[in-house]
Specification:
Number of domains of chain A: 1
Order of helices and strands of chain B: EHEHEHEHEHEHEEEEHEEHEHEHH
Number of strands of chain B: 14
Number of strands of chain A: 7
Helix content of chain A: 40-55%
Strand order of the largest sheet of chain A: 1-2-3-7-6
Structural class of chain B: alpha/beta
Radius of gyration of chain B: 20 Å
Strand content of chain A: 5-15%
Shape of chain A: globular
Structural class of chain A: alpha/beta
Order of helices and strands of chain A: HHHEHHHEHEEEHHEHEHHH
Helix content of chain B: 25-40%
CATH architecture of chain A: 3-Layer(aba) Sandwich
Largest sheet of chain B: 7 strands, mixed
Oligomer: heterodimer
CATH class of the largest domain in chain B: Alpha Beta
Shape of chain B: globular
CATH class of chain A: Alpha Beta
Largest sheet of chain A: 5 strands, parallel
Distance between the termini of chain A: 52 Å
Strand content of chain B: 15-25%
CATH topology of the largest domain in chain B: Rossmann fold
Chain lengths: ~325, ~325
């Protein structure tokens, strides 16, 4: 990517905003990893490390009333949609101040006040839900757009087929974003399917399919911008395939090296989305080193603040266990 | 039950409830297969498409998983929906969306997101449909926290309960019985709602309590008429909703009569009948004169042969026979 192209495509101010968001997602997950390994956080976590450019590139196009449906690997989507680090981390800690008051945790985290309609413990399940939310938006004519994130693992499920087909035939304002990180848990995508181009599957449903470098936040932003605009103008859904990679195992505790080579992991780390954005800012003269250091420190403080907030937050009252079933 | 109104059938009572509520609440959207111009496989949406059109009566392809998820997602986003599985059996294609998403969403979101969706399906044996089209698994739904379960046994209750379901924060499983669609009774034209969790005393009695749901209410009532000829006074209770359950009215009756027979079209193991026997043991142990009994379908897939299916499902004769045995057994000594 040349300097000239960069300056034409995006202003330094905007790129700096993206950089800070990418770093927020990265440092948040690194902190979660540390807390989890130290036995501080209960449950199970699936970390987003390596895939940050997808969430940031897509969500930077959205307004607060727009809706995002996410996955089991969804902390990054929540943060990118604008859910504060404090209430995301408090939820991972099972605290009363968390986005679900401690009733949800990593895979059941909801913040509709920020347009975040949940992470999800069931692969594929959010695709019909997002399609339904888009039906609601279309009927209410409120120009809301719905974005649905899912992984390559979901595209071989019946949920994907049935829901994308319905979204297409009803011309709904939804953008289907596949984060193809090449592995569904441990199953390589090319072992799971004969057609490894997710974008090409769009043809089966009669909607546009686009493939994009998921490590390049500007490229993702541009592709998503077109798709979101199209959806908002009643042009119907788009399927976007973001080629990306998780540096970590499927979940914390999985080394992620039984089914992937260390070489492969290292190669992908050469295309690190945070480093790419940082280098672009420096090379294009958009920011200097001291400005970036200040940005880094700002994000670090944000994460430290979230840890302090979550740690000091109260546990849910034990006698509230029956609340909110209905 | 009201004396005022016209005699209409169960199918039309459901249509009337929907028409009333869709006129009242323009956000209601109805999703399912063949529910538009066709008016529903059981005529359960007859005439609605003509009034409300494609936007609100949304025919889908054969995709229960996708369509149910779409209905739930739309509900989460603020649009009240009905997803018609047509046959309750087909809800199995979509069970993950019903149980994992719809039923859990209020709790998982700390009450911030509701799913005002009615999951509608017709259950039970009718005209020897065979194993794939006859299931009655309302007890599975009743075992799922977060899901309300409604089992209307007659047109009057269907209209009143359906209207309540369409105003409930949801999700509600509204489970009709296929063989009741032509059942008739007096149904008022004017507005009425039947609250969830309010059992109906179908007939009063003093010697024993018969609890039955859905089509089994008719059988229990017929059995009670036979027993009356023999001098046995049976009280018949229809819970109408099994979640929430009117535990008070049921246990009051058991305490009064000292005898309980539950009639349940599902197999007995882990059934709703088993739950009612447990409740009787918990709340009415001292008042029970004889061990409570349950009459369930036999634990076999619904057979095709009329002879075999009739053998499987509870009948008036079986109910009367069980009651005879129960009445002969001596009262427990104090």
């Amino acid at each position: 990517m040349s300097e000239r192209l960069v300056t034409e495509r995006i202003s330094p101010e905007l790129l700096l905003t993206y950089y800070k968001k990418l770093l927020e997602l990265r440092l948040f997950e690194v902190k979660v990893q540390e807390l989890y390994r130290n036995g501080r956080l209960p449950g199970f976590v699936h970390l987003y490390v390596g895939e940050e450019a997808v969430a940031v590139g897509v969500c930077s196009n959205l307004e607060t009333p727009d809706l995002v449906f996410s996955t089991h690997r969804g902390h990054g989507h929540a943060l990118a949609k604008g859910v504060p680090t404090r209430i995301v981390l408090a939820e991972l800690w099972g605290k009363a101040t968390g986005s679900s008051g401690g009733r949800g945790g990593s895979m059941h985290m909801y913040a509709p006040e920020y347009g975040f309609m949940g992470t999800n413990g069931i692969v594929g399940a959010p695709i019909p839900l997002a399609t339904g939310a888009a039906l609601s938006a279309k009927l209410r004519k409120n120009h809301q757009v719905v974005v649905c994130f899912f992984g390559d693992g979901a595209v071989n499920s019946g949920s994907f087929h049935e829901a994308v087909n319905m979204g297409a035939v009803w011309n709904l304002p939804v953008v289907y974003v596949c984060e193809n990180n090449l592995y569904a848990t441990e199953m390589a995508f090319l072992r799971a399917t004969k057609n490894t181009s997710v974008a090409s599957r769009a043809a089966a449903y009669g909607l546009p399919g686009v493939e994009v470098d998921g490590q390049d936040v500007i490229a993702v932003h541009e592709v998503a911008s077109q798709a979101i605009h199209r959806a908002r103008e009643d042009g119907g859904p788009t399927l976007i395939e973001c080629k990306t990679y998780r540096y970590v195992g499927h979940h914390e505790g999985d080394p992620g090296t039984d089914y992937r080579t260390r070489d492969e992991v290292q190669q992908w780390k050469q295309k690190d989305p945070v480093k790419i954005a940082r280098k672009l800012l420096l090379d294009s003269g958009g920011s200097n080193e001291s400005q970036l250091q200040a940005a880094d420190q700002e994000v670090e403080r944000l994460i430290d603040d979230a840890v302090e907030f979550a740690e000091k937050s109260p546990e849910p009252a034990a006698d509230s266990v029956n609340d909110h079933v209905f | 039950m009201s004396e005022q109104g016209r005699v209409i059938n169960y199918g039309d009572a459901g249509v009337e409830a929907l028409r009333d509520e869709m006129r009242r609440d323009p956000s209601i959207v109805y999703i399912g297969q063949g529910i538009g111009p066709r008016g529903g496989n059981f005529r359960q949406t007859r005439g609605l498409w003509k009034e409300f059109g494609d936007d609100r009566l949304r025919d889908t392809g054969i995709c229960e998983l996708g369509a149910t998820g779409v209905a739930i997602g739309a509900a989460m986003a603020g649009t009240r929906t009905v997803i018609d599985e047509v046959f309750l059996d087909f809800a199995l294609e979509a069970i993950t969306q019903i149980v994992q998403q719809a039923a859990n969403i209020s709790y998982m979101s700390n009450g911030k997101i509701k799913a005002p969706v009615v999951i509608r399906g017709a259950m039970g044996a009718v005209r020897n449909a065979g194993a794939h089209h006859s299931h009655t698994f309302y007890n599975w739904f009743a075992n799922t926290p977060g899901l309300k379960v409604v089992l209307p046994s007659n047109p009057y209750d269907l209209k009143g309960l359906f209207k309540t379901a369409l105003r409930d924060p949801g999700p509600v499983a509204l489970i009709e019985h296929k063989s009741l669609y032509n059942a008739k009774c007096v149904v008022p034209e004017e507005e009425y709602l039947i609250p969830f969790g309010e059992a109906r005393i179908v007939r009063e009695g003093k010697d024993l309590t018969l609890v039955a749901m859905s089509r089994m209410v008719d059988l229990a009532t017929k059995a009670a008429a036979v027993l009356e000829q023999e001098g046995v006074s049976a009280e018949v209770i229809d819970p109408r909703t099994i979640v929430p359950l009117d535990r008070q009215r049921i246990t009051d009756s058991i305490k009064k009569t000292g005898r309980l027979v539950v009639i349940d079209e599902s197999p007995s193991s882990c059934s709703f009948a088993a739950e009612l026997l447990a409740i009787a043991a918990e709340d009415c142990f001292d008042e029970l004169q004889v061990p409570p009994q349950r009459i369930n379908s036999l634990p076999v897939p619904n057979p095709f042969s009329p002879v075999l299916e009739n053998q499987m499902i509870p009948s008036v004769e079986r109910i009367v026979g069980e009651v005879h045995k129960m009445m002969k057994s001596s009262r427990r000594k104090a």
